User: What shape does this take?
Amino acid sequence: MRIALLADLHANREATEACLGALAREGCGRHVFLGDLVGYGADPAWVLDTVRAHVADGAVAVLGNHDQAVAHAASPHMVAEARDAIAWTRRQLDADQLAFLGSLPLQVQEDDRLYVHANAWSPGEWGYVSSRATASRSLEATPQRLTFCGHEHRPALYYAQPGPAGHFQPIAGRPVPLPGARRWLAIPGSCGQPRDGDPAAACAVYDTDAATLTFLRVPYDHERAAAKIVAAGLPRIFATRLLSGA
Assistant: This one.
């Protein structure tokens, strides 16, 4: 089975459509959405309805910090622009869409895999896996062999070893073997708001039969997505980031 992994869609319709198309061409038969479906972007209702349809067909979706903020209340630790986007997003959604967001689990275990937005050690406190040390902390907090998470917005692949976790910098389009002798943590990168200097949308494919993970970069009309953010009256910085991928 080929599993599609998408994180941090952030209400970006153009990026989500592009990634779903690319993942369909890769032959993915199951989808996993690793949180932050909303926030920043101009199409929260469309993205939510699209993810809901996939979940109804058996996909997995987990709660992200922006999802929680929209469904419940924004964290005081969020920057002002993010809180503005949260308030705007809430006004675009109906009761059923908000209820769907609020019902998402913090994490899902499936076979030897853990799906979570932020980390395994404290999923609801939203700490980042942004280093070998934090990757080790997350790997040590779960018995699952594979952890797939988002939140960091940059593709990364870590593996457990004595001391800080080992780290690979993934190359898009090149399958990476994930041998069973090791435990792994993978971040596919952000579909809807990449922050690694490449504006192309990010996603990944895990092949359970071949035990390989392939990171993908998918070009999309990021200029259109940015223009829609500006037209909606959302903070311009979220449009600027789409244009630069940073």
Q: What stands out?
A: Helices lie at 13-25, 44-56, 65-71, 80-92, 95-103, 132-140, 222-231, 236-244.
